[in-house]
């Protein structure tokens, strides 16, 4: 019996050493409590890593808890605390995790709204997105997002705030003036506030229609164009805007005329005035209007046959994107574009860009096959 004491003592010491290793304790405790796993590690491991790990470990833990979700009452408080972490990457990941959890994380709303003022734009971007995904109390969230949408200098963060406003639907009605004002901001390489604002206004719904109709008369052409496009996206509730869109067909700016024509087609389906406006834009020098007109004519499809002559001219444009899109648009028009077959055949053989030649060949096939 005495010979066994050294073995038992060694076993006890070994067990103590093993249990002194936090990760092993986490595994054993997780097994006992049947905790959910992520990447082979139990919930308890990730909670501890978020509290006491180094910065890379805390970054991973925040994302892991977002994947696991609110499976324990400890998850949301841990992620809320991480919004104040010293490392911006941890704060950002905690916000992304809460956004992934979504509405079940509504109790974290006050902390998220406070985090919209984080000093790092990369964190503000993640938080702005998360506020829209979590959708906390609109009375507090909407004003905070409006401030960010109005004053934020970082483009992606501003876009995220604008998009999140739309997630609140009609409850974001107070933000309509801010969103209409954002229509005039031109896009750049990493931000498109006008497009984000149009989407948000569409989600807010009919309450935005009067402001958009008024915006059709504003001095800024981007505002007029954005308002026309947004009204077209509203569908049936925006039919009251038809006379205002029709008036914009005579606007001095080509982009406004194109957006108004597209919106008019969406709202009343009449093409008599719409297709000529779009075709005329293809012959102008405004590249943005030309690109928009090509997309609109492609969406109209076979009923845009009256624009085929103008589309053939675009096949010779100096801009590769215009040439390729023109071929794609002719493909969508189909059999009514038969007159363009000789031009398309020439492009399919001679254009210097492979993508353009392929688009032309595909258009030829689409037009001939659909006969």
Report on this model:
Helix 6 (88-101) packs parallel to helix 8. With 371 residues, the chain is mainly α. The chain contains 22 helices and 2 strands. It has helices at residues 4-19, 22-33, 43-52, 55-68, 75-82, 88-101, 109-115, 121-134, 138-151, 155-167, 176-182, 193-204, 209-215, 221-234, 242-248, 254-268, 274-282, 287-300, 308-314, 320-333, 341-350, 354-369; strands spanning 37-38, 41-42. The protein is 68% helix and 1% strand. It has a two-stranded antiparallel sheet with strand order 1-2.
Strand and helix map with partners:
Blueprint: H1 4-19, H2 22-33, E1 37-38, E2 41-42, H3 43-52, H4 55-68, H5 75-82, H6 88-101, H7 109-115, H8 121-134, H9 138-151, H10 155-167, H11 176-182, H12 193-204, H13 209-215, H14 221-234, H15 242-248, H16 254-268, H17 274-282, H18 287-300, H19 308-314, H20 320-333, H21 341-350, H22 354-369
Antiparallel strand pairs: 1-2
Characteristics:
371 residues, 2 strands, elongated, mainly alpha
- The helix-strand sequence is HHEEHHHHHHHHHHHHHHHHHHHH
Fraction in beta strands? under 5%
What is the rounded distance between the termini?
Answer: 98 Å
Structural class: mainly alpha
Outline type:
elongated
Query: Rg to the nearest angstrom?
Result: 29 Å
- Portion of residues within helices: 55-70%
Number of helices: 22
| Uncertain spans | 9-20
Give the integer mean of the pLDDT values: 91
Profile the largest sheet: 2 strands, antiparallel
């Amino acid at each position: 019996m005495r010979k066994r004491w050294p073995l038992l003592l060694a076993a006890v010491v070994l067990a103590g050493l093993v249990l002194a290793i936090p990760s092993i304790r986490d595994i054993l405790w997780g097994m006992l409590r049947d905790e959910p796993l992520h990447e082979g590690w139990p919930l308890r491991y990730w909670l501890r890593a978020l509290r006491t790990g180094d910065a890379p470990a805390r970054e991973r833990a925040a994302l892991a808890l977002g994947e696991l979700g609110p499976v324990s009452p400890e998850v949301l408080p841990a992620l809320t605390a991480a919004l104040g972490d010293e490392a911006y990457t941890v704060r950002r990941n905690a916000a992304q995790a809460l956004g992934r959890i979504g509405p079940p994380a509504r109790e974290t709303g006050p902390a998220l709204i406070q985090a919209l003022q984080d000093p790092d734009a990369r964190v503000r971007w993640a938080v702005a997105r998360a506020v829209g995904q979590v959708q906390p109390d609109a009375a507090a969230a909407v004003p905070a997002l409006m401030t960010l949408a109005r004053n934020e200098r970082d483009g992606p963060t501003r876009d995220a705030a604008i998009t999140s406003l739309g997630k609140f639907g009609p409850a974001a009605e107070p933000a309509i003036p801010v969103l209409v004002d954002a229509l005039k901001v031109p896009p750049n390489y990493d931000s498109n506030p006008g497009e984000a604002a149009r989407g948000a206004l569409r989600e807010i719904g009919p309450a935005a229609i009067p402001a958009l109709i008024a915006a059709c008369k504003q001095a800024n052409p981007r505002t007029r164009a954005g308002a026309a496009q947004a009204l077209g996206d509203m569908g049936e509730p925006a039919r009251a805007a038809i006379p205002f869109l029709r008036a914009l067909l005579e606007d001095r700016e080509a982009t406004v005329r194109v957006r108004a024509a597209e919106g008019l087609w969406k709202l009343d389906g009449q093409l008599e005035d719409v297709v000529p406006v779009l075709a005329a834009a293809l012959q102008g020098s405004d590249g943005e209007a030309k690109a928009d007109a090509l997309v609109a004519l492609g969406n109209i499809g076979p009923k845009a046959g009256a624009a085929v002559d103008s589309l053939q001219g675009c096949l010779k444009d100096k801009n590769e994107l215009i040439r390729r899109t023109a071929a794609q648009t002719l493909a969508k028009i189909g059999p009514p574009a038969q007159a363009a077959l000789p031009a398309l055949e020439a492009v399919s053989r001679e254009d210097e860009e492979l993508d353009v030649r392929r688009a032309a060949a595909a258009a030829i096939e689409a037009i001939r096959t659909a006969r």
